[in-house]
Design a protein that fits this description.
The protein has 301 residues and is of the alpha/beta class. The protein has 2 domains: 58 residues, Spermidine synthase, tetramerisation domain (Spermidine Synthase, Chain: A, domain 2), CATH 2.30.140.10; 225 residues, Rossmann fold (3-Layer(aba) Sandwich), CATH 3.40.50. Helices cover 31% and strands 31% of the residues. The strands form 2 sheets. It has a 7-stranded mixed beta sheet, with helices on both faces. Strands 1-2-3-4-5-6 form a 6-stranded antiparallel beta sheet. A hairpin with a 2-residue loop joins strand 2 and strand 3. The longest helix is centred in the first third of the chain and has 16 residues. The radius of gyration is 18 Å and the shape is globular.
Length: 301
C-alpha cells in the first residue's frame, strides 16, 4: 500500500511513549501506540519500520509514513483491484507498480481467470520484510505459481519491449513523488502505462486524500486525459490514510468507462459467479464508490 502525500514537516517515533507520530499536513497528525517493533532497517532507498500497535494491527511505515496496516489494507487493495477486474470481466495479466507488501497481488490472484501477476518494486528489502512479517496478508500470493516478483525500477520495466501491449490491468501502488518515486508521476509515466496495456485494458492509481490534497485529483485527471480516451475517479475510505475519503483514479485504453450502470451490473454478476471472499469490496460498495460528494465532484476537470 503506498501513499502520495506531501513530505511531513516532522515525523518521528516517540520511544518514551512508544508512539508512532505521523505529521503529513500542517496542523494535523495521527499517532499509533506501539506494542512491539518487529523491523527497523534502512534500505538503499528508504527507512523501513514494521511494528504492532494497539488499535491498528501490524503496520509498516516507509520514511515514517504509514503504508499498510493489517486492519484496513483491504479498503485500499480491494478497490484498486476488484472493481476494475470485475467490470473488465476477462483480466488475465496484471502488473503492479510498487506494492511490495503484496496485498494487492493477493487480491488479484483470487480471480481464477488470471494467468499472471507481475509485481515490480524497486526495494527488495520491503518485499523481504513483508514476506516475513505480513504473512496474514500475502502468504498465499508468495506461494502462487502465477505470481512473479521483480526487484526493479517499474518505470524502466514499463518501457521494455516485452511489456508492450502485455497487461489487461496495471495498478500503480506507487510511493511518494520524491527520490526514485518521482519517475512514477507525470506524463512520461502515464505514456508508458498506456503502452504496456492491452487494447481495452485498465489502469488504476491512488490519487491522494482530497480533503487535504484537492489539487491531486485535478492534476492527475488532466494528465491522464492527455493519453487515455477515457478516465475518471472513484472513492474509498482507509482510516489510517488520514483525511476521510481517498481518491482512486482510473484510465482505459479503449475500454468502456468504469462506473456506468451496465458496468456495475456486470461486475455484480461476475462477483457472485466468482464467489470471491473480500473484507471490504462488495457490489453495493462498488456502485457507491462513484457517488462523489459535491465538493469532490467540483475538483474533476
Amino acid at each position: 500500500m503506498a501513499r502520495s502525500q506531501p513530505q511531513p514537516t516532522k515525523t518521528k517515533a516517540d520511544k518514551a511513549s512508544a508512539l508512532q507520530v505521523e505529521r503529513l499536513h500542517k496542523g494535523y497528525a495521527q499517532s499509533m501506540e506501539i506494542t512491539k517493533v518487529l523491523a527497523d532497517e534502512k534500505s538503499k532507498f528508504q527507512h523501513i519500520r514494521i511494528f504492532d500497535t494497539v488499535a491498528n494491527g501490524r503496520v509498516m511505515t516507509l520514511d515514517d509514513i504509514v503504508q499498510i496496516t493489517s486492519r484496513d489494507e483491504s479498503a485500499y487493495a480491494d478497490m484498486l483491484t476488484h472493481l476494475p477486474m470485475l467490470e473488465h470481466g476477462k483480466v488475465e495479466r496484471v502488473m503492479i507498480v510498487g506494492g511490495g507488501d503484496l496485498s494487492i497481488a493477493d487480491e488479484a490472484l483470487k480471480h481464477k481467470g488470471v494467468k499472471e501477476v507481475v509485481l515490480v518494486d524497486i526495494d527488495g528489502d520491503v518485499i523481504r520484510l513483508c514476506k516475513k512479517l505480513f504473512g496474514g496478508v500475502n502468504a498465499k500470493a508468495f506461494k502462487d505459481k502465477r505470481m512473479t516478483v521483480e526487484v526493479a525500477d517499474a518505470f524502466e520495466y514499463l518501457g521494455r519491449k516485452s511489456s508492450k501491449n502485455r497487461f489487461d490491468l496495471i495498478i500503480a501502488d506507487r510511493p511518494d513523488p520524491v527520490g526514485p518515486g518521482k519517475a512514477l508521476f507525470g506524463e512520461t509515466f502515464y505514456d508508458r502505462v498506456k503502452g504496456a496495456l492491452k487494447p481495452g485494458g485498465y489502469a488504476t492509481f491512488q490519487t491522494g486524500v482530497p480533503f487535504y490534497q484537492p489539487w491531486e485529483i485535478t492534476e492527475a485527471l488532466q494528465e491522464l486525459a492527455r493519453f487515455f480516451p477515457s478516465c475518471g475517479l472513484y472513492l474509498t475510505v482507509v482510516p489510517t490514510y488520514i483525511g476521510g475519503f481517498m481518491a482512486l483514479s482510473w484510465a482505459t485504453k479503449g475500454g468502456k468507462p468504469l462506473g456506468t450502470e451496465k458496468g456495475i451490473k456486470r461486475a455484480a454478476k461476475a462477483f457472485k459467479k466468482a464467489r470471491l471472499k473480500t473484507e471490504y469490496y462488495n457490489p453495493a460498495v462498488h456502485a457507491a464508490a462513484f457517488a462523489l460528494p459535491n465538493w469532490i465532484a467540483k475538483l474533476v476537470p
